Amino acid sequence: MKIMNVNIKVTFWRVLFVIIMILGLYSAYIRYFKGLGAVSNLSDQFPWGVWIGFDILCGVMLAAGGFCISAAVYLFNIERLHCIVRPTILTAFLGYSLFIVGLLVDLGRPWYMWHLIIYWNPHSALFEVGWCVMLYTTVLLFEFLPNVLERFQLTWALKIVKAMMPVLIVLGVLLSTLHQSSLGSLFLIMPSKLHPFWYTPALPFFFFGSAIAVGLAMTIFESTQSAKAFGRHLEFSVIVELGGALLVALWVNALLRFLDYYHRDMLAKILQPSYEAYFLWLELLLAFVIPITMLSFKKIRLSPNGLYLASLSTILGFVANRLNIATTGLEGWVGHHYVPKWSELMITVSIIATGFFLFAIAVKYLPIFEHGPVAAEPVLEPKTIRGEMPKPSHAAT
Amino acid sequence: MSKALLYDSTLCIGCKMCEKGCAEHNGLPYDDSIAAESKQSEHKFTVVLTENDHFMRKLCMNCDEPACASACPVGAFHKTALGPVVYDVWKCIGCRYCMVACAFGVPKYEWGALNPRVRKCIMCPDLVQRGEQTACAAICPTGATKFGERDALIQEAQDRINQNPSNYYPHIYGKEEVGGTSVLLLSAVPFEQFGYPSPEKLGTRPLPQYTGAVMNRIPDFVPLWAVILGGIYWLANRKNEVAEAEAMEKHGGVA
Asked: Following DSSP, what letter does each residue of B101-140 receive, concatenated?
């Protein structure tokens, strides 16, 4: 197909992308010209739905790889992981930027979003989340900037950003600790509304713990996925390393969940079948039982597909967990079910699609992967041995 | 000095004049079809429910320590000294956390509006400020909704229960629920029958304290965690320094 003298290859994914974007833009039109009631199934009974539950609660968790990996590399000196710092920072930067786009749709009065900066309420968990996200997105912008500066060879600016790096890294981990856990604190104010399977004073700890597990799982998932999609060579020793860390993180999360249920006398109740119990079982199965079982076998820990599937299960499990907290756990109090409207889902799907699109563009034009733009990369090659990993060419990013 | 409303459902005749008075004072539409609606909404801040021979009003409880005010990231809600919990639409960004946070599910939203507001009973702060009673109390023909000093109304409610124990379910709803509210309810039947959350479930602890237990630690946590992380960063990079020193030692660089 030829548009304005540019050759555009028609592929299944590109057609799908265009369809998604058209439906997403149409939904956005309904949102801004007919109101929130017309575009969504949100109501006085369910003021928060899939936009808050998925775009915000899950989006921030899925972008946690950025701070996990930069903490591992720069704070704990795990040099081997250096080669995946750039892609994870890119994912995090895109994730947080799109999260803000999601807010522009979800907020009833997005044109007053800047009020967050001038009207303060430090008692509000959402105030803290808002501020941390604003600041952390700025930090991520600076952590991402070297890609652009290198591309255009702005050496002087690169020097300035690199000089700021220690502060940026510490600030990034600090802000992430704060807002990842505060997303859980959002629900502390509703002890009588949120179902006891999910309401616990430990929510901030669970949200932080799950962010680390999912941050690791997302990094494995994304490394494998981009190796497939961009015909890149897979940093196999790196994802094996992450797979081990994921197993430990899952055990810690599982133990925390168990201790919480044990101390709140919930163990017998979660085993009795009920509407909420079915959703809880699904969550626990995907987040803990499947990935922990898989990763306990050395054979799977050393297989690209095994690691990929275990990560995928982890991601789905914790997404289910957060959706349960945001919707399933509140259905009992409300007295009826919430199912998102098609246009509500299309907004979310088109935001995700935009993320994939921007990631592909960035990888194509910026030195995200080790040896610059991917065009020159060798094809999938999963058997790189640890000691032979090429040393990173850039000193601090 | 805090004011309150006492609604005694045993004195209520279900005439819905309070609904009408509320609508008039707040500039909301009111006609027969709206009178027939049995739930609070963006255009109906109070509602009189009827079940068998019993009536029950619903309105914002105007909590002493409101969850909505604590939850709002921009502080669009606040509790006034006189009792009303008021809303500043200018500050509101429309996040709807107030609606999720409220244990009574009171705040409602203008879902069809392009610049939507949160809507709820704000206990007529203009009237209360002038020393008058709220619109619903002023219009009530039987005295079922009574406006006054909170302490005096609690005493009166207790006296009514004591004098006619057979008429009342023995509980003043709002006296201690979620730390106390500026709306007090008396009923012949348990409040749950009209969709109020049970007192056992609500508890007497103000809801903002549940979040406060975590939020109050943040000012201490931030500098501590910053120093720990900064320290780890410094140590991590110092390891390289130490390695350099070792190398220098080996080559006899340092005597």
From this structure: H-TT---EE-TT-SS--EE-----HHHHHTTPPPHHHHH-
Question: Residues in chain B, how many?
Answer: 255
The verdict on a CB contact (< 8 Å) between B95 and A177 is no
Structural domains for chain A: 11-388 (1.20.1630.10)
The complex's ipTM works out to: 0.90
Query: In this complex, is the C-beta atom of A395 within 8 Å of any C-beta atom belonging to chain B?
Result: no
For residue A27, which of A339, A342, A354, A338 has the smallest C-alpha distance?
A: A342
Min Cα distance A14 → chain B (Å) is 33
Taking the C-alpha atoms of residue B94 and residue B229, their distance in angstroms, rounded to an integer, is 36
- Nearest residue of chain B to residue A74 (CA atoms): B233
User: Touching check for B119 and chain A: CB below 8 Å?
Assistant: no
Give dist(CA A333, CA A338) in Å, integer. 12
Q: Which residue has the tokens 């909420």?
A: A276
SS3 A381: coil
Question: What is the pLDDT at residue B69?
Answer: 97
Locate A303 and state its tokens. Answer: 């297989």
Q: Pull the structure tokens for residue A124.
A: 């509000």
What is the Cα–Cα distance from B76 to B88, expressed in whole angstroms?
5
Neighbours of A118 (CB within 10 A): 8
Alpha helix locations (H) across chain B?
17-25, 32-36, 67-71, 97-101, 125-129, 135-139, 150-163, 199-202, 208-215, 218-250
More confident residue, B239 or A164: A164
Check A127 against B218: CB less than 8 A apart. no
Q: Which residues, listed in sequence order, are joined to residue B106 by a DSSP beta bridge?
A: none
| B55 close to B12: Cβ distance less than 8 angstroms | yes
Residues with Cβ < 8 Å from A308, sequence gap 6 or more? Answer: A220, A221, A224
- Beta-sheet pairing, B145-149 with B3-8: antiparallel
SS3 A294: helix
Query: Is-contact A73 A85, C-beta < 8 A?
Result: yes
Which chain B residue has the Cα nearest residue A70?
B233
Residue B60 pLDDT exceeds 80 = yes
A230: closest CA of chain B, how far (Å)? 34
A4-29 confidence digits (pLDDT tens) = 666 677 888 889 999 999 999 999 99
Residues of B in contact with A108 (CB under 8 A): 92-96, 109, 115-116
pTM for the full predicted model: 0.89
Using the beta-carbon criterion (under 8 Å), do A47 and B202 form an inter-chain contact? Answer: no
